[in-house]
Design a protein that fits this description.
homodimer, 426 residues, alpha/beta, six-stranded mixed β-sheet, 15 helices, 41% helix, 24% strand, elongated
């Protein structure tokens, strides 16, 4: 079933409010297996809204339009008028709705006499429409019908719209959907969007069910795999096979396979690494130069981290690196502060002085200045100490000072993750 | 001028991400006096996008379409192809763009050989279009033109889109409006949106020229004042008067009055405080418990900070507070780690042991657990040591663990700012 979502309200076109309704409805409809064809936002203008209905049903050939907003009591609330006009029907008073609205207004304004006259507009519907009760406000919704065409009108305030959708619309729509949908989210680190797309080219081109979608984020890439089937078990089977297929191609970049994308806007790397540390009860300390506290701050996002992280230090100056971490003056002079040698000395130093099993260090050139041809802006060395062994990693990051530091902090966490997994396997 | 905003991206139709771009652009265009006729969201489908262009120019009769998204390197990024096809033009390689993209990719992947081939798609434009540089990503934008019709294509990631819009598109569009527009941005800290709205009620209601717009951010509130006049001098005069009017009402919350909103998405507090420290050549060190490195990391966002900040420490455990900062065991036992006494001892300790003029400390309950009736989640104590004097501040922050820690870090910086300004005045 093809659906178009139309948000009605001049305040949206002025940018005064953020349109969260369209996202909410899109997610719900996707989960029902409906195909959201388009989202449109128009002002409180009956002619323009009529044009949207024509475009949706006559050009885009959608089966159902869902509107939010424009159900208020005032003259500029025109959604019902437009739907009625488009279907060539007629608005008449719905006694039940009017009764409920009067009671709500009476309760609200503390006296039936105080009911604003124009509230009666909220009780007007064509006889062909199914009225939908509003348990969170005065404006009822409705399902307008003509032949195979449907216009579902919902109130604009998210609180009213969501409750109405969950309690009354969802059961109604579920009857129209013939299969359940389940999605899994695969998070990648250390590979860019286009590089990953090349690796997954065939999978992306041949996708049918499950569908595979690729999203680039600020610090990572996410792949969403969505399966449709008649039972949850069948969905899980489809998902499992597809995820195995993807893992075989680029599993080394996958750091998390999850059920939700709730925090899809931000990385989950901090949580994944912190959980690994706590699970393995492995103590850690971090000596940060260019990241300046970001690595430690990311770990401390995790509530239980105090079991394995007791303290950290930012050794920004050479003096601090020498005094706090025992980095040798000669090393700093011979190789410079931004070098694998210094990074390793820092890692050893912080593990020793804070008496932790893992010691991690960062030292780099975050920019904008200080870069040279052999040590460009974005160059970062990571030192890792664990069980008497020390090694370092060299990376070059793009972006401004803030981005370079954020990416470096994530890379440091990723290196800890890889180290822990390697040692779990042993 | 009638404008339509088209957001391109299947992830928007699936409800995986919230469309903040449409609101941002609508607000900006409204402030320019442009008429946003409609907002549309379509998937990564060239035929559907072409239908949107037809609808916009041939039915709705708009003058300019602004698109966001669909400029990535992958095959499902089809915005430029659609615009080119609609105008009957031809995509050819733009050497300058390709050069810049190659440099960015080379830097990121640490070797020019590693540039994914499909990135070249991001450098293809019709010769009739004006290419717009992207300082925050690889995909350039462009202004497509045919006769009086314009299609302005912008990247999808808000960070890239906003910077491109403010730095390059805004000046371009201002040319189309018949008077000069100049904006100033007033940044507030320590007051919420609704509280500020009440204070500025009259100004907001009676606004004509300059216009006054209020933006709530994650950690602060920003007010934009935009004046329109025939000369820059007249604009400045209008702005100066209006800003004075606002300052008289709530000046104590203003921490920055700036000319740009380049980083309007994030706070400028870190920059303001770092600049003050460097300007006054006042050394600082931070001992962080609940903020876990965020305060130091924020200061190190500022390139020149190394002159006044040499090191910092995260003393998360009581042991660390005792060992690194010399906090007395009795104080921790009698008042607890989250107390004004501990905060002050930490501030003194870090200033002494790192030999800095200012010592700042944070200790609090970030949650989700660990709260009690007298010490609830969100409670944070700040200790400040300066010139032999020590004092502490108590605040209670709302939000989840991450938010509490971010807000606490900003508050710590704000307290340093207030301290420095007080001592400058003396």
């Amino acid at each position: 079933m093809n659906v178009e979502i139309i948000s009605v309200g001049t305040e949206l076109l002025l940018g005064d409010i953020l349109n969260t309704n369209a996202q909410y409805l899109s997610k719900e409809l996707a989960n029902l297996g409906f195909n959201v064809y388009k989202q449109v936002t128009v002002g409180d203008n009956i002619e323009r809204l009529l044009n949207c209905f024509r475009e949706a049903f006559e050009v885009s050939d959608v089966d159902m339009v869902i509107t939010t907003g424009g159900l208020g009591p005032t003259a500029d609330d025109i959604t019902k008028e437009a739907a009625t006009k488009y279907f060539g029907q007629e608005l008449i008073l719905d006694e039940n709705s009017w009764q409920e609205i009067r009671e709500k207004c009476a309760k609200f304004s503390g006296g039936a006499d105080k009911i604003p006259e124009n509230n009666i507009r909220q009780a007007m519907f064509p006889k062909e429409a199914d009225v939908i009760r509003n348990d969170n406000g005065t404006a009822p919704g409705a399902l307008f019908k003509k032949g195979s065409k449907k216009i579902l009108v919902l109130p604009g305030p998210p609180r009213e719209m969501k409750l109405m959708f969950i309690e009354q619309v969802l059961p109604m729509l579920q009857g129209n959907s013939n299969s359940i949908l389940i999605s899994k989210y695969i998070r990648f680190f250390g590979i860019g969007e286009s590089a990953l797309e090349i690796k997954l080219k065939n999978i992306l081109e041949e996708q049918t069910n499950p569908t595979v979608a690729l999203y680039a984020k600020d610090l990572e890439v996410m792949v969403r795999v969505t399966a449709a089937a008649n039972s949850e078990a069948d969905c899980e089977k489809l998902l499992c096979d597809k995820i195995k297929e993807i893992s075989n191609i680029c599993g080394e970049y996958i750091y998390l396979i999850g059920d939700d994308s709730i925090s899809s806007s931000q990385t989950e790397m901090d949580k994944v690494v912190a959980e690994l540390l706590v699970k393995n009860n492995t103590t850690i300390s971090v000596a940060e130069s260019c990241t300046g506290g970001l690595v430690t701050a990311n770990l401390i996002n995790y509530p239980g981290i105090s079991k394995v992280l007791f303290e950290g230090c930012v050794t920004y100056s050479n003096e601090a690196k020498i005094k706090r971490l025992g980095v040798k003056k000669e090393i700093l002079e011979e190789y410079g502060a931004v070098s694998s040698q210094t990074a390793e000395e820092m890692a050893i130093g912080v593990a020793k002085s804070f008496n932790s099993e893992i010691g991690v260090s960062t030292t780099g050139i975050a920019g904008p200045d200080g870069g040279t041809s052999e040590k460009p802006v974005g160059l970062v060395y990571f030192g890792i100490y664990y069980k008497g062994k020390t090694f370092s990693i060299k990376k070059i990051f793009s972006g401004d000072r803030r981005k370079v530091r954020e990416r470096a902090a994530m890379e440091a966490l990723n290196q800890v993750r890889i180290l822990l997994l390697k040692n779990e396997k042993q």
